[in-house]
Amino acid sequence: MKAAIFRGAGNITVEERPDPVIQEPTDAIVRIVRACVCGSDLWYYRGIAPHSEGSIGHEFIGVVEEVGPEVTTIKRGDFVIVPFAISDGTCPHCRAGFHTACVRGGFFGQGVEGVAGQAELARVPLADGTLVAVPGRQFPDEVLASLLTLTDVMGTGYHAAVSAGVKPGQTVAVVGDGAVGLCAVLSARLLGAERVIILSRHPRRQELAREFGATDIVAERGEAAVQAIMQLTDGIGADAVLECVGTNEANQTAFASARPGAIVGRVGVPHEVEIPAEATFYRNVGMRGGPAPVRAYLPELLEAVLSGKINPGRVFDFTTDLDHTAEAYAAMDQRRAIKSLLIVGH
């Protein structure tokens, strides 16, 4: 099979690799139809975070080719969504809704041969707990794109909103205008937010944010952004804040923009972040969030996509094939694309 291989900072190749095979009785083999590049992949690509040489990619959907003898809920021929975290669905953490902390689980795209999404085939451990079958087999490209977002980016935006406790009628601030931030806007509106303020300086992203339901755009950064949010909220601050970047500046802005008693939903992978302990303490500002347990959110988000209620696949504005994965990374790294989609198969 062909697979994208991480060779070091700025170096993605596409190489021939052995087809993955069933190794455990709970495994499944998935023929990948669509995959994509995640913003978190760029941390590796830019040399900011470490990644071992090898297979990469953790967002993919496809068709089940083979299942191990102990797989009971998934069968050959099923069209499946593959959450970025591997989970058994039965451990105490999974039962509590935090599949990313599964005691037997792990993550795709960490360099393990054949257990990655930017490839033609993937081995899926713990298939019964990890995979979600989608009714039907034939979907238009637009629906496939939205189904693909449910593997991570839409579920991550939704996790930010859920973690922040977004409620109907609230004013929500979203820090970050990448694909996760845009999906957070969509999620805030899905949960009933009346007003959604997004920090964005890029016209295309601003346009999509408005289409997803943003009511206000703040182009400033840092302290100026905080002041702009305060002006928009009559000096009160946002009822909930969704932090979707992971940098220290983004976190400082998020916590400073929250009204007393609000919660900051953090889903940006933190890099050298210091949370202002005293400032948050005296204002009763809380925080929740982390790696999104997208498997827990899949039933409701899948229904929303299939019913046409949401169309998060619109975050993809660059499309290519597996052979040109390196260009998909470069387009996002150079901010020529919000999010890159890879057409792998049919």
Runs with pLDDT <50, length 5+? none
Number of helices: 12
Q: Please trace the helix and strand order, writing H or E for each element.
A: EEEHEEEEHEEHEHHEHEHEHEHEHEHEHE
Distance between the termini: 15 Å
What percentage of residues falls in helices of 4 or more residues? Answer: 25-40%
Mean pLDDT: 96
Shape: globular
How many whole angstroms does the radius of gyration measure?
Answer: 20 Å
Largest sheet: 7 strands, mixed
Question: Structural class of the helices, strands and pairings?
Answer: alpha/beta
Strand content: 25-35%
Number of strands: 18
Task: Offer a concise description of the structure.
Helices cover 31% and strands 25% of the residues. By secondary structure, the chain is an alpha/beta fold.
Structure description:
This protein is α/β, with parallel strands linked by helices and 346 residues long. The chain is 31% helix and 25% strand. It is built from twelve helices and 18 strands. It has helices at residues 39-45, 92-95, 127-130, 141-149, 153-163, 179-190, 203-212, 222-232, 248-257, 277-282, 294-306, 325-333, and strands spanning 2-8, 11-16, 28-36, 54-55, 60-67, 79-82, 85-86, 106-107, 121-124, 132-134, 171-175, 195-199, 216-218, 238-243, 258-266, 286-289, 318-321, 340-343. The strands form four sheets. Strands 3, 5, 6, 9, 10, 17 and 18 form a seven-stranded mixed β-sheet that branches. It has a six-stranded parallel β-sheet with strand order 13-12-11-14-15-16, sandwiched between helices. A three-stranded antiparallel β-sheet has the order 2-1-4, covered by helices on one side. β17, α12 and β18 form a beta-alpha-beta unit. α5 crosses α11, α6 packs parallel to α7 and α8 (222-232) runs parallel beside α9 (248-257). The chain is globular, with a radius of gyration of 20 Å. The mean pLDDT is 96.
